[in-house]
Task: structure prediction
Amino acid sequence: MSGTRKSTFSIVAADLEAGEVGCAVQSRYFSVGSVVPWARAGVGACATQAAGVAVYGERALHELDRGATPDEALQRVLAEDDGRETRQLGLVTADGRAAAFTGSECLDWAGHRVGAGFAVQGNILAGEAVVDEMARAFETTVGPLVHRLVAALEAGQAAGGDRRGQQSAAVVVERAGARSASREGIDRVCDLRVEDHRAPIDELRRLVGIWTSWDAMRGANRLYERRDYAGAADAMRRALERGEEAMLLYNLACYESLAGEHEGALAHLRRAIALDESYRALAADDPDFEPVRAAVSEL
Result:
């Protein structure tokens, strides 16, 4: 039995203002993201771990969708499970109600914390400080749900994390209404996994940084498609406050060119090319630069 257990810590949480639900997890287990985290926009998020059964995440969310409270949903999922005392689950609704279950046969240290809009849980941990610090980090971190979830993992690891070490990590977030707001047609806005890594949470944080830039570009592109070029440029400027990236600078230059902000467009295009020479050739044929074509040809 011990070979199937995952030394794992996770958080499920809801952001009521953003209409988001999500789960983040780290484990001394290969590809933990394929088993533990579950989320459904407008319904909730679930983590199923320890001697985890992946389908329990789906079943718990189904129970929530049918109107069960978080506690009722967990009770129904585990009701006929002879191995329930080896299971650990955390569950949160889209409106912020949460519950967790830690079976009596989960390996020490095992336990959970439940707060307003979240539940944190872990097993085979260095100690209860892991879940305490995860809860503290989530409650005190400011920003989008994705970043708060990963901050909780970072705090848990800093407090000792899994007694057996690290291997994989994942974060999943869904947003109500996202399917109608983008071309993707789904509510899942973030789904990142680190399958096997010596420092999976660090790697997950790096991936979240890339995701953040791409998410900003997707938002700006929606404004661009509506011909709100000034709004798209503003969105790119906010994204660049987190750090300079050639791709963001190039897109900003495109939007500024179309918005009539020609001086800024050329300055940002020059900077993008300085960081990545490939943007010189791209700009040469990009119709977004038609308003400043003569100047672009001289760069």
